[in-house]
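ZP: hey, is the cobalt (II) ion complex queued? I don't see it on the tracker
AM: it wasn't, my bad. submitting now with these inputs:
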Amino acid sequence: MSQEIPFADAAIYRLSESLALVQSVDFFTPVVDDPYRYGQIAASNSLSDIYAMGARPLTAMNIACFPINCLDKDILVQMLRGGAERVHAAGAVIAGGHSIEDDEPKYGLSVTGTVDPRHMVTTCGARTGDQLLLTKPLGTGLLTTALKGEVLTETDVSEAIAGMVALNKEASEVMMRVGVAASTDITGFGLIGHAAEMAEASKVGFRLYMERLPHYPQALDMAEIGLVPVGSHRNKKYYLPRCRNARPIDPLLMDLLCDPQTSGGLLLALSPERLDLCLEALQQRGVNAWHIGEVIDSAAGSIELEP
Ligand code: CO
């Protein structure tokens, strides 16, 4: 099955005509100091690949690395508590896990879910004329870099923290109800990378309207003072060659486009007839969404940038 669907966010194993297992794993070093929040963010991020496919998470296993001899054990407990809270909010259960001693804390989940393979959403279904929606603002890479550099405090970036904690559950459920052509979640490759990968998998080009890109408060201020994460440079180097623009683009918006995200939103491609219905349904479920672009008949994986 996974050979038939090479462009999905998670591994897929078909059990029957109407049932497939979906599995993903992700973990990373702390993005915020508060261990409970960190646990929540890491768990939400790990669940995101499952939601991007329209699958339902069932079980999750903890993966934790922790310097048990130099840090208070309560920090580990808080971390795991935060993760468990998100897993329960997702309607799944923690089925176990594994922890090892390490110099720096790392945490995440291995998640197993199910989906009806006839209805699952992958990255390869976008068609020319489809519209592009993004369900979370951008800028978590810039803001967590500012936190690490102690330029901003966790109170300053509370909106971004709430955004990273938020599950893509509601967005995923709406997407399954409304019907979309393609979906992916925005994480380390930034909007630019995940958009390019989705466009390539769908053998189309994307047009993005840069002024429409949503961002968390102060993200552009951090770009302006040059507090750009390492991952952003990597994303630029790798994905900028696929971009073209007839008119000049604000370099700060380019930093936003390439910013690696933690627990980012879903990027959805859907037919123009379903656009308003989808926006309305998302709003009813308390999910913000931004109409950031459209699918165009262009070289596979290419991105056209409009100011
Ligand atoms: Co993903």
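AM: back. The first strand starts at residue 11 and ends at 16.
ZP: great, adding it to the tracker
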